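ok so I'm stuck.
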Amino acid sequence: MKWYIPDCYLHSKSNGEFVSHEAVCILNTSCSDIDFSLTLYFEDKDKAGGYSVTVPAERTIHVRLDKTVSADGTPIPRDTPYAMVIECEGDHSEDVFIQYTRVDSSQPDLALATTII
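replied:
not stuck anymore, here's the structure
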């Protein structure tokens, strides 16, 4: 199963008490844990993998992308447009729900964008 988020961007500038960030919220309604991998695609460099998360059975997890690192410790780059593919093994189309949210506090007025994919 795959989910696609074509417009991602971690802003390095924050203004006020809220930190600019993105989050991927994953709801697993199945009776078993599910492992997810995240692959990043860029405009001008090779894709980056090694980002993963396990969502326990019948739980939700909120993955703050500004705090996420790959298996080798590489953070997701800031101020760089990228796209993300989220994958898990098997067909969990009725068990998994994903929501992507971006908080941009680089301006005095906070901007929030969210979508369920």
